[in-house]
Amino acid sequence: MINYKLNNYLAIIGTSIAIVACSTQAADNAGQSSAQSNKLPVDAKIVKAQPLSQEESVAGSVLANKEISIASEVSKRLLSIHFKEGGRVSKGQLLYKLDDSEIRARLKQIQAEVSLAKLSELRLSKLLKSESIRQEEYDVALTKLQSLQASEELLLLELEKTNVTAPFSGMVGITNAEVGTLVNIGQPLVRLQEQSTVKIQFTVSERYIQYIKVGKKISFSVLGATEKQIARISATESGIDNESRTITVHAISPNTNNKLTPGMSARVYFSTAADDAMGMTLPTEALIPSAQGYSVFTVKNGAAKITPVTVGNRTEADALITSGLTDGDTVMISNTLRSGNGTPVQVVSIK
Q1: Which of 101, 95, 93 shows the shortest CA–CA distance to 71?
Q2: Is the pTM for the entire model greater than 0.85?
Q3: 252 CB-near residues (< 8 Å, 6+ apart)
Q4: Is the pLDDT of residue 291 over 90?
Q5: For residue 280, what pLDDT band results from cuts at 50, 70 and 90?
Q6: What CA–CA distance (Å, rounded) separates 263 from 242?
Q7: CB under 8 Å to 313, separation ≥6 — which residues?
Q8: What is the per-residue pLDDT across 105-136, written as a single tens digit (0 to 9) for each?
């Protein structure tokens, strides 16, 4: 009988303990649930530092690598044209032949006089050695020979100028003179462009001069082409323009298959970031603007922390952060307007 009562008593105590334990657990769960419900649910992004790609774009133009206007150095009648308009010519190729008949006639006369003067100089040289003549007589003959030889050289040079040739290989345009035309000295005859490579000319604001270095690569695109092409900066103007506060830049690019025509407009892109610069990309909704600049909310120990950042390039969707964040930081990208510094937050999703 005593054992029976004891067992009932122990059973009642066990039941009471179980009820108390369950009540305590329920209270703890309720407290945790209440604490969780008080935290602001947010979406977040874990940022990762990557090599910084920050660039500016400016308008530019495609120029021929070399371009000259072919002109005559003598005033003569045009006899013949030896190229196809708009075609390719080679270095040294004859482009125009001018009338050289008068020059050849004068040259023939001079050459005859030179031959006679040589004979006279040779004869007098022998007589001088035998002291049959005075030195002055020989000197006169020698001077005459040298003068005639100089005249011969000038005529040969003038004769060569009646052959108007290409100084380099390239593409010629439309001729400005026709056969039979009297060509004057310095008269432009046709334009010649070297197009196997082209120059990309553009101007850059003085604030970007530090990023413009000879040998640095840039990219560009032309109207009607979707893909960018690469060029390398070859030269810059010696100084900044006083009025526009810009500097003119030339970059060289191969002109494969002559796809680029001088005169085309171009869009030039150049990097404005250091070679070792790193950056992080965030959705623009993560940014908090203020009079001092931009900030974001990072999540630290379950609370929002206001963090000032520096924004580089920005589009409607994304912003490039150049400083203020550390690789691996968790940044809030939602509910930023409902949050404040120190607000308890609960990250519900990682984008």
Answers
A1: 95
A2: no
A3: 65, 197, 198, 199, 200, 231, 232, 234
A4: no
A5: confident
A6: 26
A7: 54, 55, 319, 320
A8: 999 999 999 999 999 999 999 898 888 889 99
The pairing of beta strand 40-46 with beta strand 345-350 = parallel
Domain spans of the chain, in order of start: 57-63+194-271, 100-159, 277-350
| Contact by Cβ (8 Å): 78, 71 | no
Question: What is the average pLDDT score of the chain?
Answer: 87
Strands 330-332 and 318-323: unpaired
Q: How far apart are CA 281 and CA 319, in angstroms?
A: 6
Token output for 44: 């977040």
Strand pairing partners for 251? 200, 233
Of 12-26, 116-130, 274-288, 296-310, the poorest mean pLDDT is in: 12-26
Q: Terminal CA-to-CA distance of the chain, rounded, Å?
A: 70
Topology at the third CATH level for domain 57-63+194-271: Elongation Factor Tu (Ef-tu); domain 3 (2.40.30)
Over residues 191-219, the pLDDT tens digits come to 999 999 999 999 999 988 988 999 999 99
The correct CATH number of 100-159 out of 1.10.287, 1.25.40, 3.40.50, 1.10.10 is 1.10.287
Burial class from Cβ neighbours inside 10 Å (0-12, 13-18, 19+) for residue 341 reads exposed
